[in-house]
Every structure is written in C-alpha cells, then in structure tokens.
Amino acid sequence: MLHLKTITKDNWIKAISLKVREDQVKFVASNTVSLAQLNFLENFHAKGIYYGEEMVGFTLYGIDEDDNEYWIYRMMIDQKHQGKGYGKEAVQLVIEDIRAMKEPHNQTISLSYEPDNEHAKRIYEKMGFREIDGFVIEGEQVARYTY
C-alpha cells in the first residue's frame, strides 16, 4: 500500500536519488530542481511516495499564487518501480491529501504535462483530469480535476 511522507532533512537525499527512465527525462524536472523550487513556493508540499518503508516516487503540489487553486507541479515514479500501478495510486493519494486540506472555495486541481507524454495523459484521464482546450503553459498541456 502506498502512502505519502513529507520530504525532510531525513529523506531528501533519497528523494533526489530517484530517477525516471532516460526516455522520460525530458518530461519532468529533476527532484533536485523541485526541492530548490520549494524554497520559493508558499503553501506547497514536497512528499515522497512510499511503498512500505521504500521511497518509490516524489510529488510536489500546493496552491498556485496565480489562481489560488491547487496544482500538482511534479509527479514521478522511480524507473525501478514503474509499471506497477504506483502512478495512478499516487495521484489518488495526492487528490485525497488536497481534499483533506482544501478550503471550500478551492474547486479544482490542475497539472500540466508534455503533449507527447501519452502515458501520463492516460493516467491523468483515468483519474478524472480533463484537458483544457487551448490552455498550454510553457509548451505543456494543462488538465484539470474538479471536485
């Protein structure tokens, strides 16, 4: 069973050692970049995705200052743990975590992905995210989940 655990001084090195497959590097920023970015983001959470005691992935999400809604900025599963259904389960855990802390006025969760990342697109669609036609940020397609 997967669970989320906050990235702290005790597990950040494990988080930055996680890697996607070589053919996926162009799809997601490194966890090192994500943890550095966290210093400049208020109301964001960096969490390890754990299977038991082993960190198998990483996620970064929080309230975007531009629209005051929740955004998933990063979602990755380590190359050694892909193909096990962890991605879908991790997205569900993030949705549940956001649902537990969101305010009544928060109505959506948004994310973006490279248009040619078909695997991510399929996972997000299965989880209820819908592409917003014509909404592209820095070349990435935006999709939105509505409560």
TrEMBL record:
<protein>
    <submittedName>
        <fullName>Spermine/spermidine acetyltransferase</fullName>
        <ecNumber>2.3.1.57</ecNumber>
    </submittedName>
</protein>
<keyword id="KW-0808">Transferase</keyword>
<dbReference type="Pfam" id="PF00583">
    <property type="entry name" value="Acetyltransf_1"/>
</dbReference>
<keyword id="KW-0012">Acyltransferase</keyword>
<dbReference type="GO" id="GO:0004145">
    <property type="term" value="F:diamine N-acetyltransferase activity"/>
</dbReference>
<feature type="domain" description="N-acetyltransferase">
    <location>
        <begin position="2"/>
        <end position="147"/>
    </location>
</feature>
<dbReference type="InterPro" id="IPR000182">
    <property type="entry name" value="GNAT_dom"/>
</dbReference>
<dbReference type="InterPro" id="IPR016181">
    <property type="entry name" value="Acyl_CoA_acyltransferase"/>
</dbReference>
<dbReference type="InterPro" id="IPR050276">
    <property type="entry name" value="MshD_Acetyltransferase"/>
</dbReference>
